[in-house]
Amino acid sequence: MKIGLFYGSTTCYTEIAAEKIQQVFGDEIVELNNIKDVSLAQTADYDFLIFGISTWDYGELQEDWESHWQELAEIDLTNKIIALYGMGDQIGYTEWFQDALGMLHNVTVEQGAHTIGYWPNQGYEFDASKALTEDESQFVGLALDEDNQYEQSEQRINQWCQQVLEEIAEIIS
Ligand SMILES: Cc1cc2nc3c(=O)[nH]c(=O)nc-3n(C[C@H](O)[C@H](O)[C@H](O)COP(=O)(O)O)c2cc1C
């Protein structure tokens, strides 16, 4: 099994999380792709994908994802299994926490992807987020906060990777 992990990262936090996720799955399984350097057309090489994004500037997309947004709206993600993770700051930007994760989730669903890896929203404090499921019980992907909860990130990543593996196993069985 190969998983293509595509991420955009302005100050390297999403990139460091990508490397940790790769370590957990193993580098024979997860291939890292910084979208600053690669085309999203390369998602076609994988059945399983992980997308990583940070939120910037009061609920805006990370800049490399923003530059690929049009391309993303044109790629076919039907039959792809996609898990998402996001980086945000729940105290500094409490009204826009992880908004870009929610925007990326919406577009992947619109492009036909089957999304997995939803994550409970307990243990966070924020006023609003576009990254919540409709019933507001979960984030639509793993929510990491290196600004305020960096000590929890490793455990969250380990647990989430395990969850993603179990969800994939269920789908392909
Ligand atoms: C100027 C600025 C604006 C930000 N805006 C938001 C925001 O609107 N929502 C949020 O959840 N986090 C916001 N953040 C926090 C970043 O998402 C967080 O620092 C993240 O770890 C950056 O990841 P990256 O270095 O991979 O891009 C902001 C950070 C900065 C410095």
Automatic annotation (TrEMBL):
The gene is fldB. This is Flavodoxin. Keywords: Electron transport, Flavoprotein, FMN, Transport. One of its GO terms (molecular function) is FMN binding. Residues 3-165 form the Flavodoxin-like domain. The keyword Metal-binding does not apply. It comes from Thalassotalea algicola. It comes from the Bacteria. InterPro entries: Flavodoxin (IPR050619), Flavodoxin/NO_synth (IPR008254), Flavodoxin_CS (IPR001226), Flavodoxin_lc (IPR010086), Flavoprotein-like_sf (IPR029039).
